[in-house]
Every structure is written in structure tokens, then in C-alpha cells.
What we know:
five-stranded antiparallel β-sheet, 29 strands, metalloprotease, single chain, disordered N terminus
Amino acid sequence: MYKQLTLLLLAFFGLGQGFAQVKEFRKDKAYPEKDSKGKYYTVSGERHGPSFFKKEVFSEVEYTPGDQLTFDKYHTVDVMYHWYEKWAAAFPEITDLYVIGYSFEDRPIYQMTITNKETGKDTDKPAAYFEGGRHSGEITSSESILWLTKHLLENYGKDEEITHLIDTKAIYLRPQNNPDGSNLYLFSAQRNRSTVRPHDNDRDGLVDEDPEEDLDGDGIIYQMRKMAVTEEEKKKANYIVNPDHPSGKLMKRVFAGQGDYLVFTEGIDNDGDGDYNEDGVGGLDLHRNYPENWRPDIGGDLTGRGYTQYGAGQYPLSEAETRSTVLWILSHPNISVVNSMDTRVPMHLRPPSTSKSEERMYPEDLAIYKEMDELGLSYTAYPWAGDVYETYSTRYKVNRLTGDPLKPSPLFGHGPDFGYFYFGSIWYGDELWNNGAMKDYNGDGIYDDYDGLVWDEEENGGRGFKSWTPFTHPELGEVEIGGFHPKFFGQNGPPWQLEDWARKQALFNLAMAQRLPELKVETPEVKKISDGVFEVSLSWTNVGGLPVALEQAKLVKIVQEDRVTLEFDKELMEGYENAKVKITSPELYDKTIYAGHTGKGETKKVTFRVEVKMDEEVTGKIKLSSTRGGFISQEITLNN
Length: 640
């Protein structure tokens, strides 16, 4: 319902030559990222804390598009949009570019459809949907969508498998689902993960009143460590210098009162509550805002005995960004495969998020998901693949602080759960990047900061970690500022690692798309039984890698049965028993043949019987319609 014609959008941006200029009935906004002279980045909304922050320019980011798209730097939203506009103009025969919705700050959210228009409409084909940028700071996911888009377009007509994919399927790509948050992240020191909608994270009645601050003016918000001196500080101290690493850089968490240090993110206690930086810009989580198994935000359970979900929003789909995804997805039930990506576990992350896989998933569907898990690992070699509730929550077996065994833990309002239980699809929420923990250097079975620091020192020139530097804090006194670079080592990798992570994740998504259902339809068979009596048969085989419907899709009725119709000119079929052309089988009034759901590798055949009371040649159309297998129409001829 939000879709706008590509030609209109391209004309608006000056790319649609020969078309009239089209201007939306919307007030032009002066977005801070477009103001090259402005020194501050301002965000929308009313809050008790600051709404403007010093602009920063990071060497790891490309702010102006170059002549060539390379992946040795991260790209701003506008740079990404530049390339999508350019591609839409260069590949009009296989792309449509449109605005799918608008963000909280009224920025357009771009989406591209890739399919060969000459072979049919995108909605008449099996489809996959891939999305990045939902979490504002987890920008590697957006880069993977950008890489995949470039890869598909540049290899169409050159690579046989990609050409076949685009000829027979539709690929929907959304690089930035949270342009507000991504812009704030890339143009300031703020490390936000959410949208910029004001939110009372600490439930103290004040909104966004305690953001982080770049105290030492280096453009990055690191950590602060404070040696416990007073008795009150010693009671709270819960960090020691990690003895496992000789540098003294790493901190290790211990129980309160057993440590030597207090550790905070860089900033001051703006609201004077004793906590640092606990209520910065925004706080809602777009990946907790889906309607499946949604729970109220913290404080929303009035009994105090139920479940809540931090960042859930006021109600399911309360956020424009999530709402645009879900409403569009529901209008495109031809989609079988989805990946809506984040950073930084890394993991191929799938449903269920609130129960064990065997408890709620159909065995047939779970088997397909497990195949996809293994497929993903074959491309990425991530340490993990599996469900959120059990595999993700217990991947390290024990709590490193307490020693207690980890238990499965629910996560509510999660995209993959919506994708499977509500929409009946293969839906992943993959996590890219690993905080530099490339391997288990100390053999403790855990990929942690120790491993990240060793890799940084050995392979990254030590650029990912800022050595602890003395600083006089206005409230705490003498502290040290340092730690891992939060943007380009913690949440995302250093730029020289970017393309490898973007590429291997994109290739997994491509591999899933190449396993979409594909109905290979044979030429209709027309057999004359006797004078004026014909049998018309149609056979097809699902040569794709997925059935046309998961068992869950059948349960929730997101797909219809595969069905075949035979159609002739309306006037030929008028007159009931005296009609010139009459379909006698099926014998029912409804002449549709319902063929169930075509499984992977399954062949089906249906047959109509037709009576023709005329000497002239009769033409008609036989049509196969499958919600996720596509729509195919072929012409037939009956000749007495």
C-alpha cells in the first residue's frame, strides 16, 4: 500500500529522463546530515536531555559517493541511496526503486525490487526479502545488503545462476530500515542502537535525560574506569584488571565489593541518580516491536510476575519503521525467505525466540531450518547457528560471573518469530561481526574480549583498542578513558574487514534465494477423446529447493492451495447446457482444480474435460496459481 512507482521516484530525483517532474506534497526538511556547514547534529522529539550533538567525521566512513562503489569504508545512508538511484537508472529492465515508508524523523526508506520484468511481475514469482539497518549502529548489516545488490545487478547476464534467479524470482532489498538512527550514529559520537524517538529507558519520569558524552573530545565514546577509593566505591567496585592478559588493558567483571574498579561508559551523571548514561537518545528496539509474542515494555506488567520486554514500544508495530516492514510483507505473501540482519554475535539466528524448536515447530519445517543453518555455516563459518531461545541463550553453557548453568531465555516481539509463526516463512535475524574475537586464542571455549584484544594486537595493528589514558572527571575525579573502539571494532569491524563479512553473509542470503520454490510447468497436453470432447492436462514439478508452503504457512492460512483454472472467452461459455464450450470435469460448479501444496521435487498433474459444440478452432488459457510458487499462464487450442 505504500509502494510508489519507480518512475515517479526516479523523476523526482532527476533520474527519469523524459518524465515529468513529480514533487510530493510534503514539506522539505533540512536534515542535519545534509548541512555541510553545520557544527551540530540535531535530532527530533521532545526530551529532557540534549537534542543536539557535535558533528563528527570518521575516517572509516565515506560521506560523499565516489566514482566506484568499494567496501573499504562504511557508507552513509545518503551514499547508499545514491547508488540505488544510480542502479535504478542503469538497470530499468530489472529494477524498481521506491519509497516503502517514512521514518520517525520523516526520512524516506528506500527499497528495491530486482526481477526481469519481461518474464512477469514480481508478485507473480517466488520471492525473497533481505533487510539491514534496523539497529542504527549495526551498520555492517546494511553494507551486506548493499554488497548483495551490487553483486546481483553486475552479474545479471554474466552469471548463469544469478541470471536464472532474476529471470524467475523476485528479490526485495531494503538497505536502511532506520535511517534516523544510522545518521546519528555516523555523524556524531553517539552509539545509539535504536530509533531516535524519545523513550524513558530508566523509568524515572524523565526522557532521554542522561546520554553519553565524549569528555576528552576525541570523537569517540569509550569506557571510563575509576579506581575505587571511598568505602562506598569499594562496596560497588565490580571490576578488576584481567590477570589473563599481561597488558593490563582488559577488565574482568566480578561481584560487587570484590573489585578494584568501577567501569562506566564515557560521560557524566546528568540526572544525578548515581547511574551513568542509562537514558540516552531513544531506546526503543525495532526488533522487539513485531506482533508475534509481543510483551509490554519494562513496567508494563502491573502484576510484577509476568514477562516484559525492554524496548518493545507502546504496542506492536507502534514504530513506523517496523510497521512499514510488516504491512508490506503481508501484502506480498509470495515471499518464502527473509533475513533481517544485525550485528555482532556472530550467528545465524532463527526462531523460535520464546520456546524450544521441538516444542512449537513442525518437524518438517524444523528440518528445513536446520538445513539452512548448515548452509549458512558453509558460507560464513560462524561459531553458531540455531534458535534464539535455546541455542543463542545457552551458547556458552555457564554464566561466567556466577558459574551457574545458563538457561533458555525468551525474547519477545522478535522478527524471526513473526516470520515463522505468523507469516509461515523461513526468516532469519542473522548477526554479523564478532568484536574481533576471530578464534579462541586462550582455549577457554569462549570468544570474548581476550580473543578480540589478541587479534587486534596481532592482526589489526592495535587500532581497535585505546590504551587507558588519565582524565580528570568533573564528578568522579581521577579516571582513565579507554577500551575497545565502540563503533569500528565493537559493533562493527575495522573497514578492512568489512567486505569479507558483508560478502559472506550476502552469499548465504543469495544461496537461500536460489532455493526458493520453482514450478517448472510442462507444455499443456490436449487430447481429443471423441468428436467435440477433449481432455486438457497440465503437469508441473517443483524443481526448487523449498516446498511452496511450510507446514506453518498452511496452518496460519498465509498461503492458498496450488490451483489450476481453464479459461475461454466468456461468450463461448454462456448458456449453461447450450454453451458452445463447456467444462464437464470437474463436475462441480467451481471449475477450479485444487492441487494441494507442491512439495520439493514433487510432480503434479491435473486434467480437465471439455465439450466443444462448434467447428471453429477454440483457444483458451490454462493457469497455475501458487501463492509462493508463482503464477503461470499458457495458451491452449482445441480443434474439432
